[in-house]
Amino acid sequence: MMLRPVLPSFATLLVVLVQTVHGAPSTGNPFYGDPPDQNHPWAIHDRNRPQPKVVVPGTFSTASQPGKPPSDAIILFDGTAAALDKWESDSKEGGPTKWIVKDGAMECVPKSGYIRTKEQFGDCQLHVEWAAPVDVKGDSQGRGNSGIFLMGLMEVQVLDNYNNPTYADGFAASVYGVNPPLANALRAPGEFQVIDIIFRRPVYDGDKVLDPGYVTVFCNGVLVQDHTPIEGPTGHMKRTAPKAFPAKGPLKLQDHGNPVRFRNIWYRPLPPRSVEGGTDGFLTTEATKAKRAEIAASIRADGAKLGANPKEQMLRLAESLVYAPDAATQKTVEGLAATYAGQIKALAGAGLEARKNEITQVMKALQYLAKAGVVPATFAPKLTLEQISKAAGWDDEKK
User: Fold this and answer.
1) Which of 56, 82, 98, 217 is the one with CA 20 to 30 A from 29?
2) What gap in Å lies between CA 250 and CA 150, rounded to an integer?
3) At 117, phi and psi to the nearest 5?
């Protein structure tokens, strides 16, 4: 469904060249958006927030042709016989599977048993393509039946439901026995169905549910499971019961007695959620405080390197105080700000006007710090710069 890495285009190289000549592109301004709060360690539009990683997208699959995975995908089956080495028999002993590879697809050998990946993983974006036999035999659950078992525990049904009704919670792309698909979006038997799954496992702390887990599924580009809560491992004829899942598990494919074919299987690990230590989204007060302290320490370490430029050091160290207080840093910032304000106060005429933009930048930073409660509204350096700006008529220019 997605794409292999490609050589950079001329436009990409030009961007890199421009960045090399003129420096890295701006990732935002400090003292700009709302500051961090008790449940969010990052400021709004925070320039200190990590940049998203670059992933080269892939190509979409068709019924007859598999697409290319994205550049960061972990390939589980690429259509080659060698790829079977990544799989094993789902028996206690494991060992080689009896499934076969034919025409770029992995085919179930009926009565040979389930297979599973040797690799184990948890939360993921999973891509699987499957095709029911073109020679239609049987009906209901006896026609083109298999299953995709996430972590070996929860089944997303594989079944030829093209003009073939069955019980709703056993349809293709159902969470088997739990939730029917929103639609039957299958192609005809023999054509490959493209399944994309977003899987978030249940997370527990002892017996306490921190996150029940969810699964979202697309079948041939059609949404068929919409953030469906996970109710536990699935099974046949018995209602599921919520329980904790392990951190990792294998992907299993079912042998249900039909020669179903699979191709183009890959996954992308997903980052941890906030309940697992992730730092995006709504965090607990404790987790937010810890992350804010970590961000502040990183900024202070950066600010310590700016001693040759007192103004920039003042601003960088002041930025750290937005995340977490520190008495020594506070004292340093106040001293640098007082020195800066005194130097500006001594300027006049053309010398003052030449530094207008810089002075305005520092004044706005101090105003932001006052609004965030880092310095008092009566902070002397702030008042000095505001008075200078007003006397110079810079405030009037904005009106």
Assistant:
1) 56
2) 7
3) -75, 145
Q: Using one digit for the tens of pLDDT, what is the confidence trace for 226-257?
A: 999 999 999 999 998 999 999 999 999 999 99
How far apart CA 111 and CA 257 sit, in angstroms, is 6
pLDDT at 2: 41
Tokens coding 294:
């970590």
3-state secondary structure of 202: coil
Beta strand 146-150 pairing with 154-158:
antiparallel
Sign of CA dihedral 230, 231, 233, 239: negative
User: Domain 61-276 belongs to what architecture?
Assistant: Sandwich (2.60)
Q: Give Cβ neighbours of residue 149 (< 8 Å, ≥ 6 apart).
A: 114, 155, 251, 252, 253, 254
Coil/strand/helix, residue 237: coil
CA distance 290 to 283: 11
Cβ(230)–Cβ(215) below 8 Å: yes
Give, in order, the Cα–Cα distances in Å from 172 to each of 114, 117, 265: 18, 22, 18
CATH 2.60.120.560-classified regions of the chain? 61-276
Contact 181, 111 (CB under 8 A): no
Angle at 197 between CA 144 and CA 200, to 5 degrees: 130
Mean pLDDT of 173-188: 97
pLDDT band at 25 (very low <50, low <70, confident <90, very high): low
Task: Please report which helix (H) or strand (E) contains residue 329, including its range.
Answer: helix 327-345
* DSSP notation for 154-200: EEEEE---TT----GGGSTTSBTTTB--S------TTSPEEEEEEEE
Q: Do 380 and 370 meet the contact criterion of CB atoms below 8 Å apart?
A: no
Q: What count of Cα atoms within 13 Å lies in the side-chain half-sphere of residue 338?
A: 10
